[in-house]
């Protein structure tokens, strides 16, 4: 069973469009302790740690999730370090079918006024379909993202290893549903970024 797209996350947030919020400056990224810049076409790949949960009506727990993407803009003054999601999967979701119909992209925003390697993540144009099968039939729910706050990326300079992504009860708005679907489904997940093996948000 697949949730092919998330978080960018739910790609990844592994492919991320990364923007510096509320200023004309750009958010950029480095992919080595020596400060090498993340560049266009660089890949991003992240895998979940523990379960990935869509908590709403219905509630779905998936054991496996992968996000992949490719940087589409390396960032400069007035623009954003960006990557488009190419894959987002949710698998082993019990008696449910989860499919990502649109992959979209994820943005990373620097944390605070002075960059410290960490960032926050938002997602746009990811569309997820959830089919829950039970004795009463199948419930069909559709959720999407539109500058939706996903959570946090902790940079390698702070983790001491690979970067990590924490999606903490991010509310995915409902766009189409059967009766019985909640107005949002809260996404909770943790990912380890394996590519690049060093990533910090500037």
Describe the structure concisely.
This protein has 202 residues and is an all-beta fold. Helix content is 2%, strand content 53%.
Q: In this structure, how is the largest beta sheet organized?
A: 8 strands, antiparallel, barrel
- The strand count comes to 15
Radius of gyration: 16 Å
Return the structural class. Answer: mainly beta
Give the distance, in angstroms, between the N- and C-terminal Cα atoms: 36 Å
In round numbers, the mean pLDDT is 78
Q: Low-confidence runs (pLDDT<50, min 5 residues)?
A: 1-25
Instruction: Write down the overall geometry.
Output: elongated
Oligomer classification: single chain
List the domain count as a whole number.
1
Strand content: over 45%
How much helix, percentage-wise, in residues?
A: under 10%
Describe the structure.
2% of the residues lie in helices and 53% in strands. The protein has one domain (29-201). A hairpin with a 4-residue loop joins strand 3 and strand 4 (60-62). The strands form two sheets. Strands 2-5-6-8-9-12-13-14 form an eight-stranded antiparallel β-barrel. A two-stranded antiparallel ribbon has the order 1-15. It is mostly beta strands. The chain is built from one helix and 15 strands. Mean pLDDT is 78; it is low at 1-25. The protein is elongated. It has one helix at residues 156-159, and strands spanning 29-30, 43-48, 52-55, 60-62, 64-74, 81-91, 96-102, 105-110, 119-124, 127-134, 137-144, 148-154, 164-177, 184-195, 200-201.
């Amino acid at each position: 069973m697949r949730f092919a797209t998330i978080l960018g996350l739910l790609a990844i947030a592994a492919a991320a469009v990364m923007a510096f919020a509320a200023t004309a400056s750009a958010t950029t990224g480095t992919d080595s302790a020596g400060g090498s810049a993340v560049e266009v076409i660089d890949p991003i790949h992240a895998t979940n740690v523990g379960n990935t949960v869509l908590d709403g009506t219905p509630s779905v727990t998936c054991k496996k999730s992968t996000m992949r993407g490719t940087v589409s803009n390396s960032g400069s003054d007035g623009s954003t370090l960006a990557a488009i999601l190419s894959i987002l999967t949710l698998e082993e979701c019990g008696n449910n079918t989860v499919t990502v119909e649109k992959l979209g992209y994820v943005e990373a925003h620097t944390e605070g006024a002075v960059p410290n390697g960490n960032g926050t993540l938002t997602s746009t144009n990811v569309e997820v379909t959830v089919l829950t099968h039970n004795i009463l039939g199948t419930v069909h729910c559709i959720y999407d993202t539109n500058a939706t706050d996903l959570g946090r990326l902790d940079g390698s300079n702070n983790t001491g290893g690979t970067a990590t992504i924490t999606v903490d009860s991010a509310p995915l708005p409902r766009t189409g549903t059967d009766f019985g679907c909640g107005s949002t489904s809260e996404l909770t997940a943790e990912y380890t970024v394996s590519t690049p093996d060093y990533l910090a948000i500037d």
